[in-house]
Design a protein that fits this description.
It is built from ten helices and eight strands. With 290 residues, the protein is α/β, with parallel strands linked by helices. α1 packs parallel to α2 and α7 crosses α9.
Length: 290
């Protein structure tokens, strides 16, 4: 039976998650084809993946990169290798609850205008605003989301030029909305995600850097000047009023300086996405409001 779903997973130093992840994938009741990319891991990720892949009941393609491509480019690379009608983007530090992917697929197939179907993360869900009647949401996280390939190709995939990690899923979601594709939150499709809260002590220096820098990108690409208060509050909180350490403020200063070189590109491409406002494009529901 030919699979209409491609499971795309980008790994980077993910050795301790490989076993539980593959165990959960083995329980899938629908046919899939998997595409795995190792982003230059320095731990035992590859050594654990190779024997694990041999035990999964579906066709799997495994690629290795000598450099860390990041999430956005890594997913774009896998998307170009795959061919299914749907792509299931999944973080390596996750475990699928029973029926998760099956429920996402059923919801996506029920409405051809649905571009993204996001699973609910457990035990910690990021702040999530959605319409309780339609399940429409502002943006879908890339941690566990079913993507309609037609919609993905319609917007050109992830913008790997400016996104390495963080906020690339918001950028993609808002492009979907602007092209007429829906972003849906499927509450009864559950994925366990080992986020920072679940793994105390995890250092987030790189994550904080890109989260800060890329949040600014969202304003340049999708924001309007009458929303400037959100941007000013974001900056003043990080540099003046927020309870951040000196080390964090220095990190944010470097990230702020780094973002400047991308401004010409963001302004050049802004007209492609900001001809009109959209009710689901809400800066106040992103990290800019944190």
């Amino acid at each position: 039976m030919t699979s209409s779903i491609d499971v795309l997973i980008v790994f980077h130093n993910s050795a301790k998650f490989v076993g539980p992840l593959l165990d959960s994938l083995r329980r899938l009741s629908i046919p899939v084809t998997a595409y795995f990319l190792d982003n230059s891991s320095a731990d035992d990720t590859v050594e654990r993946l190779i024997p694990g892949i041999a035990q999964v009941p579906f066709r799997t393609y495994f690629f290795r990169s000598r450099t860390n491509n990041g999430f956005a480019r890594g997913m774009n690379l896998l998307a170009r290798q795959s061919a299914g009608k749907f792509m299931f983007l999944l973080n390596p530090d996750t475990e699928l609850a029973e029926g998760c992917l099956e429920k996402l697929l059923a919801r996506a197939e029920s409405d051809p205008s649905t571009g993204l179907c996001e699973a609910r993360q457990w035990p910690r869900e990021h702040p999530k605003v959605y319409n309780s009647k339609t399940d429409e949401t502002s943006w879908c996280t890339g941690a566990a989301v079913l993507v309609r390939r037609q919609a993905f190709e319609d917007v050109g995939g992830f913008d790997e030029r400016i996104f390495f990690m963080y906020c690339e899923d918001v950028d993609l979601s808002w492009k979907f909305w602007l092209r007429g594709w829906k972003c849906i939150y499927v509450r009864d499709a559950v994925v366990k995600h080992y986020t920072q809260d679940v793994l105390p002590g995890k250092r987030r220096t790189v994550e904080n850097y890109f989260s800060f820098r890329n949040s600014l990108f969202l304003f340049y690409r999708f924001g309007f000047w009458d929303e400037k208060r959100i941007l000013f509050k974001f900056l003043s909180n990080r540099f003046i009023f927020g309870r951040y350490s000196l080390r964090s403020r220095i990190l944010y200063a470097f990230a702020f300086a780094d973002h400047i070189r991308y401004i010409p590109y963001l302004l050049k491409t802004r007209h492609l996405w900001c001809a009109n406002r959209h009710p689901w494009i809400r800066l106040e529901e992103t990290s800019l409001a944190e």
